[in-house]
Amino acid sequence: MVQRLFILALLIGAAAGSAWLLKWLSEDPGRRAFRADTRAPDYYMEDFTTLTMHPDGTRKNKLSADYLAHYPLDNSTELVMPRMEIFREDEFPLYINAEKGRLDGDDDTILLYGIVKMWEYDDTGSPTLEVSTSHVKVSLDDEYAETDRQATIVTNNAVITGIGMRAYLPQSRLEVIKHEKTTINTASGS
User: Could you give the CA distance from residue 24 to residue 84 in angstroms, rounded to a whole number?
Assistant: First the structure.
């Protein structure tokens, strides 16, 4: 009796193993490879640029990066050396660069990591605003950016440092959350 149960268990195990092997062999090889390395990107691009438009056809923002990789497991996108240009009505564009970036799913929010720089120019091509920080969250739809890290803001007249910053991009309005120091440049003539 025990011998019959043992043989029956072996036959059931062999049948289940054969069914699994047959299914695995009939599966698309690309799908098998993806399952083997679930953190592998399903597509990537090098030196790409994308332009987003307003409903009226005017430019809203431009995103470029040296490298982009999309990961289907969590629907995230990693960026290397992302560069953004935010177009504003009646203003010169605002520029943002970072070492790395990430988009999660279909969200319009880009997380920027490493050294993050933001700046704008006047009509002579001179910088009127420069911001240095790290770990910035940029909401493209809301045209808003924020960080909870150390931030340094340099204008023609002052240098402001603090912890945390909110940036309202269309108006070039910045708020420092925890002010540390302001140095006024009296030699600027203003």
Answer: 44
Tokens of 110: 């880009």
pTM above 0.90, yes or no: no
**Cα angle 54-60-66, degrees, rounded to a multiple of 5:** 135
Instruction: Collapse the DSSP code of 78 into the 3-class scheme (helix H, G, I; strand E, B; otherwise coil) and give the result.
Output: strand
Q: Are 167 and 149 in contact (CB under 8 A)?
A: no
Q: Looking at this protein, which amino acid is placed at residue 144? A: Y
pLDDT in tens, the chain (190 residues): 667 665 656 667 666 667 676 777 777 665 555 554 567 899 899 999 999 888 999 998 899 999 999 998 888 999 999 999 999 888 889 999 999 999 987 778 999 999 999 999 988 888 888 999 999 999 988 889 999 999 999 988 999 999 999 999 887 788 999 989 989 987 755 4
R_g of the chain, CA atoms, integer Å: 26
Per the DSSP assignment, residues forming a β-bridge with 176 are: 165
Helix residue spans in the chain (DSSP H): 2-26, 29-36
